[in-house]
Amino acid sequence: MKYQAALKYSIPRGTDDILPAEAEKWQWIEEMARKTCHLYGYQEIRTPLFEHTELFQRGVGEATDIVEKEMYTFQDRGERLLSLRPEGTAGVVRSFVEKKVFAEPQPTKWYYIGPMFRYENPQAGRRRQFHQFGVEVFGSADPALDAEVIALGIHYFEALGLTRVRVEINSVGDPETRARYRKKLIDYFEPYKEQLAREARDRLYKNPLRILDSKDPKTKEIARNAPSILDSLSVAAEQHFGQVRKYLDVLEVPYVVNDRLVRGLDYYTHTAFEYVVDIPGAQAGSIGGGGRYDRLIGEFGGPDLPGFGFGIGMERVLLALEEQNVEIPVQKRLDCYLITLGEAAKAAGMKWLEALRRAGVKADRDYMNRKMKAQFKQADRNGARFVAILGDDELKQGKINVKHQESGKQETIDLDQFISYIKENCRRG
């Protein structure tokens, strides 16, 4: 077939088409996420792909890279400023407050799976449209819940067959801790002010904690000897962090304390953590992370209730699975391929094909008018376990021929027994 396209279109940079063979892998890792969450009592929530921009400015933090440089923001026809969601927590908290779920018995355990959007430099495992699996739990400040949520993520990775995933954990403290640590950081960085990257200088007095998250090589080198937040923890923050580590030990979750871990969001308090695995080409090997956010619900107009959660990048999960050569179970096989010979058989074949599908049998037929030999080849390409041949003569006799592809055995059976015969043999495997 010859054709000339009037226009050539290409996919926007930083996005991907997920073709059918890959989509089955996505469906599997998403289904494993749902199964794991259900074991822990979490229910699914689905929030809009875009929200009012102010939600992310207030929730994520105006001094973060996400809000300053990475959000897709636009004005709609009503001149409202909206943004595609760059992360999942803010929208979920907004829903919790707006729908007054806080009035119900707590805790509330939710999870979500869906696309997020950030204007980033595309690289392995990082796209401008990416997909995230996250959990959020509201209503309890119990350190045991921190440990449970972290363990849920590890359980998920193990269910996928992913190995060598470690947890890096830190405490970013409470307001008392942050005030004390903020002063220490300013005192430390001020002598190096002119050597810091521009964005780090801009953050020095607004949010010096963000400097520890800088990607600039010179700034990272300077930050290497900055004071540790663990030396500034209040009594309450130190107790909380100690309890979290105790419960992680009880759950036998392997972790290391990383006192430079601050995450890229401003809403965290107390526990902050990341899941880290070695993925060549992916930045820092992080495939997810999260933490506690005890003031965010109040910031959004709700009661003073605590929260805890994580987000896991699904592209990075697939990359890690590929790197570790984990075989993803993809259902490629067809149960039955139907070949018809003659116009009457073709019409009747449509009826029987539909009957197979209604009976739960994966079935297909030829729509390209191929010869019989070519149709057998197509059945092989589809991994068909059985090939059924129905001709006009067989139709008159109320018969159909069925070939077992694996053994080569061929049988002629009554048409009225066809569906039950295929179902029974599929069940036997």
In short:
This protein has 429 residues and is of the alpha+beta class.
Helix and strand layout, with pairings?
Elements: H1 20-39, E1 43-44, E2 50-52, H2 53-59, H3 65-70, E3 73-75, E4 81-84, H4 89-98, E5 108-117, E6 129-138, H5 143-160, E7 166-171, H6 175-189, H7 198-203, H8 217-223, H9 235-250, E8 255-257, E9 269-276, E10 286-292, H10 296-299, E11 307-313, H11 314-323, E12 336-341, H12 343-358, E13 363-365, H13 372-381, E14 386-391, H14 392-397, E15 399-404, E16 410-414, H15 418-428
Parallel strand pairs: 1-5, 7-8, 12-13, 12-14
Antiparallel strand pairs: 2-4, 3-4, 5-6, 6-11, 7-9, 9-10, 10-11, 14-15, 15-16
Helix pairs in contact: 1-5, 5-9
Catalytic activity: tRNA(His) + L-histidine + ATP = L-histidyl-tRNA(His) + AMP + diphosphate + H(+)
Family: Belongs to the class-II aminoacyl-tRNA synthetase family.
GO molecular function: ATP binding; catalytic activity, acting on a protein; histidine-tRNA ligase activity; transferase activity
